[in-house]
Every structure is written in C-alpha cells, then in structure tokens.
Specification:
The protein is α/β, with parallel strands linked by helices. The longest helix has 21 residues.
Length: 305
C-alpha cells in the first residue's frame, strides 16, 4: 500500500483529497497546521521524516478572496513561498519519490488572453490584488524545475482554477466568491452589496473534481511542465450571483459597489492538457455543484437555513 502525505490535509481541498485517496486504497497521512507549522524548517523536516511517504501532495496554503489578499499581501507572499520551499527541500533531503505541487490561477498575468494556456504563465505581472500570493506559488514552479534538473526530484505542478464546494470557507472576511454569495444571500434576504461591477469572469471547479484531477496527475503524469485543472467554462460574477440566488431562493436586490476592485478582468483556462496528459475532465456542472454546496451549508449552518 502506497504511503501518501497530504499537507493541508484538514483543509477544504485537502479533506476531499484524503477521502479520494483512501477510497483508492492509499495509506494517507493528513498533515494539519496544528501539528506542523510548515513555515518552520524544523516542522517541515519532522513531518516528512515521520511520514516516510512515497508521494507528497503539497496543498497547505494561506489563501482568501480579494479582501484577504489586500489585507495580507506580505503574509500571503511569505507563508506560501516559505511552506513550499521547505516541503521541496525536505522532500529532496529525504529522497521522496514524487511531489505534487499545487499552484494557482492567480499566478497568470492580469491580461492573459482567454483561455489561459500554460505557456502564457510568464507573459506578464499578475493582477495586483493577488500578485504576492500568485508570485509565491509561481516561484515554486521554478524551484521544482531546478530541483528536477539538479537533484532528479520528480515533482509536478498543477494550476487549478477557482475551487468551490462542500466544506468551503464561508468566512466573509476571507472567502472566495461562491461561498461569500451563498452566505450573504442567506443572511440578508432583502439586499446584498457586492464588490465591483459584476463584469469580471471566473471559472469554477468543483472540489471533488479537483481531487480526482490531483490523483490522476499523481498516477499518470511525470512531466516538468505545469498543467491547468479546470472546466474551460467562463462565467461572469454577475451570472454567478444569479445562479447562487436561484439555488438559495434569494429574490432581494443586488447592489454593485463599483468603488471596490473587480480583481482580474477575465479568468478561464485551457483545460485540454489535463485530459490529454492524464485523462482528467471535470464532471460537475456549475449549477449542480452550487446546489450541492448550498445544501451542505444549510445543513452545517442551521441558523441560516
């Protein structure tokens, strides 16, 4: 039975990945921040040594929506870069056979032509509000390639688009667009205020689909080049709000605060590489995924049901 280490294993994506791996017969150690502070070399070394894993998924991250990125640019840059550096270095020192690194769609340049191709990754500076986070993650791709070249470390780098689903972060101070919309519409049935003008587009990937993509990549892909994980479906924030409103039964007024930032103008990935290289294709339509997410939130937040 293959021993697998998942950093961030108690988090949103991590918990779904752990379940998928266990269903697949893997022996999984889910590392959590309460046990290992991966910004500390000592904790990262202890984690990798204790795990003795043949495969590491590095999912641990400090993340959030536009507001969280604006409030914590230094922390997001430092923590995400430091955690990744420590995991890579300890995997090298302990001769871990394979490492799966998770990047972010935020690493792409602000004005990347849609759909985003992996070759576009270095063609400009990321959108300003999440650039520190995106650049920290993108730097890990450079490190992974350098470690492959010098030390022979087999590490792959995946670029998922915006994730959503059950167990997402619904804290309005740090959440992304879909969980924030769900909570706002349930808590304020008469009117909600949203940032920007609703025109930016996003691409959303259901969390269980992402977990499946990670496992397929780990089992079937060993290349040095980054690979997008997404659906290839572009949806505006305004349309997203309408879909969430239908799912929660919200019939109040939506007010757009154009004095607040829109974030990146457009986001949608070319997801063809993942299908060609390791057979991944997202299966969950957006409306179905949002309905499942709303049902989960209602069940776990009875005050707002």
């Amino acid at each position: 039975m293959t021993r697998v280490l998942v950093t961030g294993g108690g988090g949103f994506l991590g918990s779904h990945l752990v379940e998928r791996l266990e269903r697949g017969g893997y022996d999984v150690l889910a590392a959590r921040s309460a046990e290992y502070d991966l910004t500390r070399v000592e904790d990262a070394e202890r984690m990798v040594r204790e795990a003795e894993a043949a495969l590491v998924f590095h999912l641990a991250a400090e993340v959030g929506g536009i507001g969280a990125n604006r409030a914590n640019p230094g922390r997001f840059w430092y923590a995400n870069l430091q955690m990744g550096l420590n995991v890579l270095e300890q995997a090298r020192l302990h001769e871990t056979p394979k490492v799966v690194l998770l990047g972010t769609v935020c690493a792409y340049p602000k004005h990347t032509p849609v759909p985003f191709h992996e070759a576009d990754l270095w063609d400009g500076y990321p959108e300003e509000t999440n650039a520190p986070y995106g650049i920290a993650k993108k730097t890990l791709l450079v490190g992974a390639r350098a470690y492959r070249e010098q030390y022979g470390l087999n590490s792959i780098f995946l670029l998922p688009t915006n994730l959503y689903g059950p167990r997402d972060n619904f804290d309005l101070a740090t959440s992304h667009v879909i969980p924030a919309l769900i909570r706002k519409m349930l808590e304020s049935p008469d009117e909600i205020v949203l940032w920007g003008d609703g025109s930016p587009t996003r691409e959303y990937l259901y969390v269980e689909d992402c977990a499946e993509g990670l496992v397929l990549a780990a089992e079937r892909y060993d290349g040095p080049d980054p690979v997008n994980l997404g659906t290839g479906v572009e949806t505006s924030i305004r349309e997203t709000a309408k879909i969430v409103a239908e799912a929660v039964g919200f019939d109040g007024r939506v007010t757009w605060d154009a004095s607040m930032p829109n974030g990146q103008p457009r986001r949608s990935l070319d997801a063809s590489g993942a299908e060609q290289l390791f057979g991944f294709r997202a299966r969950t339509p957006l409306r179905e995924g949002i309905a499942r997410t709303v049902a989960w939130y209602r069940a776990h937040a009875p005050t707002y049901a």
